[in-house]
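Hey, weird one. I pasted the ATP synthase epsilon chain sequence into the form twice and got a warning about non-standard characters only the second time. First submission, copied straight from the form history:
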Amino acid sequence: MADPEKLFRVNVVTPDGLIYSHRSSIIDMRAVDGQRAIMYNHTPILTPLSIGDVKVKRSREMSNKVDHIAVNGGYIEFSNNTATVIADSAERARNIDVSRAEAAKKRAEQHMKEAREKHDTRSFERAEIALKRATNRISVYNSRK
């Protein structure tokens, strides 16, 4: 008899509460020091995340079922076969309002242009982060199936 599939729990939490909770065979995300993937029985880890797409593969049998979640930084902690992503904000691909994200992208680009003209480094950096967040949301939305 074949071994049952080994799955672990993935939870994504923001200040607004739990936004995602499912069992997974693998989770893939961008940490500040590079791409990371976690599977069942991974060594405990706590690492900061970059703005990016957290991909949760639900099971091996459902090989094409991957949930995409846009996160704006935060941390991932894995222990006892539970992965917990803690982020200031996170959105499942299916919940992203792409027109709102595109408007945020245009605003950020405009703020970057204005900050560059005024030589305002701090405002430029804030607008650059807003642009990365908006671009990430658009990219995650487009990656959904």
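That's the output from the first submission. The warning seems to come from a hidden character in my clipboard, not from the data itself. The chain has two domains: 8-93, 97-143.
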